[in-house]
Structure formats: structure tokens, C-alpha cells
Write a structure and sequence with these properties.
Blueprint lengths: L3 H19 L4 H38 L2
């Protein structure tokens, strides 16, 4: 059984894996990765504002009927 043809691809694969782990993540990639979280946070904040506004209107309506 000849292992020589497998040595070079295996060595290259190990080197690529080792180099990839040490490569710092670019700032642009980090910003792109944070975009979904920022979108969700924005929607949650807007929904909370809408709920607060609805509660205030309900309180005003109740207070106006007394």
C-alpha cells in the first residue's frame, strides 16, 4: 500500500487549517456578521416603542372616560 500520494494533500490540508485558525477576522466581515443582530435589535426597539405608545393611548382613553 503506497501512502505517498496521500502525504502531500494531507499536509496541505493541515497547513490550511492551521493558517485559517490564526487569520484575524477583518472588520468588514465582522460588521456583515453583526448586521442581522442589529436588524433584530432595531425591530425589537421599534416594537417596544409601539407597545409603549399603545399603552399610553389606552391609559389616556381610560382616563378620559372617567
Amino acid at each position: 500500500m503506497n501512502l505517498a500520494p496521500l502525504v502531500l494533500p494531507a499536509t496541505l490540508a493541515l497547513l490550511l487549517v492551521a493558517c485559517d485558525a490564526k487569520t484575524p477576522q477583518p472588520e468588514n466581515a465582522r460588521k456583515i456578521g453583526d448586521a442581522p443582530k442589529q436588524t433584530i435589535d432595531k425591530v425589537v426597539n421599534e416594537a417596544n416603542k409601539a407597545i409603549e405608545q399603545g399603552e399610553a393611548r389606552t391609559r389616556d382613553a381610560i382616563d378620559g372616560n372617567k
